[in-house]
């Protein structure tokens, strides 16, 4: 018996040894060393361009396959699927009355109902809000099962390619990223506490970034946030933090979490003074505002990083900014972050996937490609209140990142819309009725 | 949990759905888009929508007549609407031009004819589904549309005036034929249509 096992044993050990060495070398050479010295080999860009060519080819093949079967490919369109008129309530109703009875400004017309009816049904077919809380649909397939809608149009060649993709992503990229992540957590933990300076802090985040195969382009770095200010950015995923923090040092604000997030939070606190709140403290807005102002007033402290949307949005739009951080009265440094969804969906749909599931998705996608724009600093102007200031900053971020600028609250992901908005609509319509009477 | 949209397309025999659906909505791409929308609204993933699923749409929730519109999707006494019902109701809003493509003489009056569009609107007013709009019903719908901003007396006089103008047979209610007469000059086809971009 033993004589049988012996050669296999040897072979097995040898194979394990070799693969371990290879994998460890890869880890060192591609992730740790460049992160420490802050250099880049340019390999990731090459990887990115190759992937794009492959995706285009895959989509063409699927289109061909669909044509052969005389069917149509399902093509998602993110710009809306129906034509909507931008006219206001008043405009449309008056127009309708004029064309109908020839009397504009009449008191009430039975045709008024058409306006509400059509608007209502339009929102049932396609609305601006609910689609922001699920991952964006892609126009070409990126060889990930999770983003495919035309499964039955895949040929054998495509299936092989997809299989290869699965092997690469789960066999090579995932373990590499996982170990990179472990190294980062080790770096952050107690041992390094006394030596941690800004440089080491940056290095740790850079390891994380390389481990995730994140290809980030920073624009306008001359506008990078400085001490004594607040940095605001649009929020898509927890990775936003890693992306920003690998290019500068920030103080984080947030709730104390339990579980995996809590461990990471506690590790980060040892590095720099962050501002963590207990759940009960979060409700007390004055307390929050006071602590933030105190931090900002101290010029030696790092700029605070805040995501005013309050929740993750799917990176096709920017939703309402909560006014809290804009009331403090210091310089605001807006930052726009736009992910390229072709390489992996960065959006965290927290109602569908937990943190662990999300990390698995992240680590097994092709790459995380994004652009970060640092916008020029803004301050509140004379006669502008916090809400207007927040909207101004939001508009600037939306414009730069090519995102839709929405007034809706990101909190609608989980909560119902407030009655006050319905009351506004009712008020508008009442004006049309009563205004007509005064004629 | 990583269920694919395409999985569902297969499971629920999508080609069959398209076949039957193409009598209601001619274009395959529109049917697919509506199915995708239906699926995204169906949070419980049970193949049917409830009223709560509709109320989750913020733009519909702030519409003063939101509840009446939602009601139009549900047949008498039912709490769930399946994809077929969803499409049948939405078909009322197809533009009239679309009918050129579907010249099936045996099909009967299409759901998106002028008459049927008017009937849809009539039913929004007719709360108890007795085929006439009483003063009470008109008042209730008006109240929904204006909220608290107009007094009872003013609203009452608006309702009285409207019924007076429309009522031709003296029963103090508006029947469907009276409704049609009042709106004969309005471009119903345009105002009650939704155009797909693709």
Automatic annotation (TrEMBL), chain A:
Keywords: Acyltransferase, Lipid biosynthesis, Lipid metabolism, Membrane, Phospholipid biosynthesis, Phospholipid metabolism, Transferase, Transmembrane, Transmembrane helix. SMART domains: PlsC. The chain crosses the membrane at residues 20-43, 154-172. Residues 229-340 form the Phospholipid/glycerol acyltransferase domain. It is found in: Membrane. Pathway: Phospholipid metabolism; Lipid metabolism. Belongs to the 1-acyl-sn-glycerol-3-phosphate acyltransferase family. PANTHER family: GLYCEROL-3-PHOSPHATE ACYLTRANSFERASE 4, PHOSPHOLIPID ACYLTRANSFERASE. This is Phospholipid/glycerol acyltransferase domain-containing protein. It comes from Pygocentrus nattereri (Red-bellied piranha). The lineage of its organism: Eukaryota, Metazoa, Chordata, Craniata, Vertebrata.
Automatic annotation (TrEMBL), chain B:
One of its GO terms (molecular function) is calcium ion binding. This is EF-hand domain-containing protein. CDD domains: EFh (cd00051). Residues 29-64, 113-148, 154-189 form the EF-hand domain. Pfam families: EF-hand_7. The keyword Transport applies. The keyword Metal-binding applies. Belongs to the calcineurin regulatory subunit family. CHP subfamily. The gene is CHP1. It comes from Pygocentrus nattereri. GO terms for cellular component: cytoplasm; nucleus; plasma membrane. It comes from the Eukaryota. GO terms for biological process: protein transport. It is found in: Cell membrane; Cytoplasm; Nucleus. SUPFAM superfamilies: EF-hand. Keywords: Calcium, Cell membrane, Cytoplasm, Lipoprotein, Membrane, Metal-binding, Myristate, Nucleus, Phosphoprotein, Protein transport, Repeat, Transport.
């Amino acid at each position: 018996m033993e004589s049988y096992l012996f050669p296999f044993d040897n072979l097995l050990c040898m194979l394990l040894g070799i693969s371990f060495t290879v994998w460890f070398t890869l880890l060192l050479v591609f992730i740790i060393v460049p992160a420490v010295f802050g250099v880049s080999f340019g390999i990731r860009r090459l990887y990115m361009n190759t992937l794009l060519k492959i995706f285009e080819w895959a989509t063409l093949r699927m289109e061909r396959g669909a044509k052969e079967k005389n069917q149509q490919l399902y093509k998602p369109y993110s710009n809306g699927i129906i034509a909507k008129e931008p006219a206001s309530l008043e405009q449309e109703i008056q127009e309708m009355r004029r064309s109908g009875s020839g009397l504009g400004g009449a008191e009430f017309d039975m045709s008024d109902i058409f306006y509400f009816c059509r608007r209502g049904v339009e929102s049932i077919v396609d609305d601006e809000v609910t689609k922001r809380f699920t991952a964006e649909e892609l126009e070409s397939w990126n060889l990930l099962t999770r983003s495919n809608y035309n499964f039955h149009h895949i040929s054998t060649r495509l299936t092989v390619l997809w299989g290869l993709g699965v092997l690469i992503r789960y066999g090579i990229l995932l373990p590499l990223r996982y170990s990179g992540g472990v190294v980062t957590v080790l770096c952050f933990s107690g041992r390094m506490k006394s030596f941690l300076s800004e440089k080491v802090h940056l290095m740790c985040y850079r390891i994380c970034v390389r481990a995730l195969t994140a290809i980030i382009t920073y624009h306008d770095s001359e506008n990078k946030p400085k001490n004594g200010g607040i940095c605001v950015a649009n929020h898509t995923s927890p990775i936003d933090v890693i992306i920003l923090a690998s290019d500068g040092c920030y103080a984080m604000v947030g709730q104390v979490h339990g579980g995996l997030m809590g461990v990471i939070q506690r590790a980060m606190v040892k590095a720099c003074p962050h501002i963590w709140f207990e759940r009960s403290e979060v409700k007390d807005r004055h307390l929050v505002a006071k602590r933030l102002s105190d931090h900002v007033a101290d010029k030696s402290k790092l700029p605070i990083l805040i995501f005013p949307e309050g929740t993750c949005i799917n990176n096709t739009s920017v939703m309402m900014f909560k006014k809290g951080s804009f009331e403090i009265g210091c310089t605001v440094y807006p930052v726009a972050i736009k992910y390229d969804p072709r390489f992996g969906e960065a959006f965290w749909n927290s109602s569908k996937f937990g943190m662990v599931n999300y990390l698995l998705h992240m680590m097994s996608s092709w790459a995380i490609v994004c652009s970060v724009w640092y916008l020029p600093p803004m301050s509140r102007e004379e006669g502008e209140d916090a809400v207007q200031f927040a909207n101004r900053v939001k508009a600037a971020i939306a414009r730069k990142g090519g995102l839709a600028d929405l007034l809706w609250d990101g909190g609608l992901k989980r909560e119902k819309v407030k009655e006050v908005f319905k009351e506004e609509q009712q008020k508008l319509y009442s004006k049309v009725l009563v205004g007509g009477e005064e004629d | 949990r990583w269920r694919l949209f395409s999985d569902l397309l297969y499971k629920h025999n999508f080609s069959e759905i398209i076949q039957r659906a193409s009598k209601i909505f001619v274009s395959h791409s529109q049917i697919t888009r509506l199915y995708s929308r239906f699926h995204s609204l169906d949070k419980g993933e049970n193949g049917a929508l409830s009223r709560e699923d509709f109320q989750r749409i913020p733009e519909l929730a702030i519409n003063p007549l939101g509840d009446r519109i939602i009601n139009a999707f549900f047949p008498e006494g039912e709490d769930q609407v399946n994809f077929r019902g969803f499409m049948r109701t939405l078909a009322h809003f197809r533009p009239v031009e679309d009918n050129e493509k579907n010249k099936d003489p045996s099909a009967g009056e299409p759901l998106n004819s002028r008459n049927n569009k008017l009937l849809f609107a009539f039913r929004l007013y007719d709360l108890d589904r007795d085929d006439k709009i009483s003063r009470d019903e008109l008042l209730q719908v008006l109240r929904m549309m204006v909220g608290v901003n107009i007094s009872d007396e003013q609203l009452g006089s608006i309702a009285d005036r409207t019924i007076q103008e429309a009522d031709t047979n003296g029963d103090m209610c508006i029947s469907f034929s009276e409704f049609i007469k009042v709106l004969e000059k309005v471009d119903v086809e345009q105002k009650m249509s939704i155009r797909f971009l693709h």
